[in-house]
């Protein structure tokens, strides 16, 4: 995305972030800081437009470094006027193709605000699973503290790997015994 492209996208970015309903970005950031966040940190950033009108944008980047770098991460923003017209679907489908071309084996969305029901439903239609829920992790401007969802889709050739068995947690009584033993030893 060129600086001119971002300048055209900036009003959409600014208004979505200012609404504090879907993104945990600083609403006070200026255009230059937003451009660095959206365009420079990711591997690639794409603009959706029709007849010269900007409809939305998305970025693609690794979700983590090193051993986790095979999982990609994307963020999508669509102008209010273009919502419900297939723009988010087209961008998500495009991002999955680009992710595969870049060698990513999966995509993970780290923080989908649970009250963003249209996005959650679309991501699920496109094959993303809810793999985690973060209680009260987002301070929504209208609804207060709401949950965020972690969503994941395997993109690799082979079937999605089986989810590991849940880790059995140590009971409270056992944790207290471990903590009290350590305290005695450290004293």
From TrEMBL:
Residues 1-156 form the N-acetyltransferase domain. Gene3D superfamilies: 3.40.630.30. InterPro entries: Acyl_CoA_acyltransferase, GNAT_dom, Mito_N-acetyltransferase. Keywords: Transferase. The keyword Transferase applies. PROSITE patterns: GNAT (PS51186). It comes from the Bacteria. Transmembrane segments: none annotated. Pfam families: Acetyltransf_1. GO terms for molecular function: acyltransferase activity, transferring groups other than amino-acyl groups. This is GNAT family N-acetyltransferase. The lineage of its organism: Bacteria, Pseudomonadati, Pseudomonadota, Betaproteobacteria, Neisseriales.
């Amino acid at each position: 995305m060129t600086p001119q492209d971002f300048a055209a996208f900036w009003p959409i970015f600014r208004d979505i972030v200012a609404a504090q309903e879907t993104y945990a970005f600083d609403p006070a950031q200026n255009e230059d800081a937003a451009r660095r966040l959206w365009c420079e940190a990711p591997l690639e950033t794409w603009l959706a437009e029709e007849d010269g009108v900007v409809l939305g944008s998305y970025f693609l980047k690794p979700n983590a470094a090193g051993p986790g770098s095979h999982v990609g991460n994307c963020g999508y923003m669509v102008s209010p006027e273009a919502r419900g017209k297939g723009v988010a679907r087209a961008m998500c489908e495009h991002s999955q193709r680009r992710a595969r071309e870049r060698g990513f084996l999966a995509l993970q969305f780290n923080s989908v605000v649970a009250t963003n029901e249209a996005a959650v439903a679309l991501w699920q239609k496109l094959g993303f699973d809810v793999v985690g829920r973060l209680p009260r992790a987002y301070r929504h401007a209208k609804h207060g503290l709401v949950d965020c969802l972690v969503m994941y889709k395997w993109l690799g050739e082979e079937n999605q790997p089986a989810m590991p068995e849940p880790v059995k947690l140590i009971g409270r009584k056992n944790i207290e015994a471990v903590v009290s033993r350590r305290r005695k030893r450290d004293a």
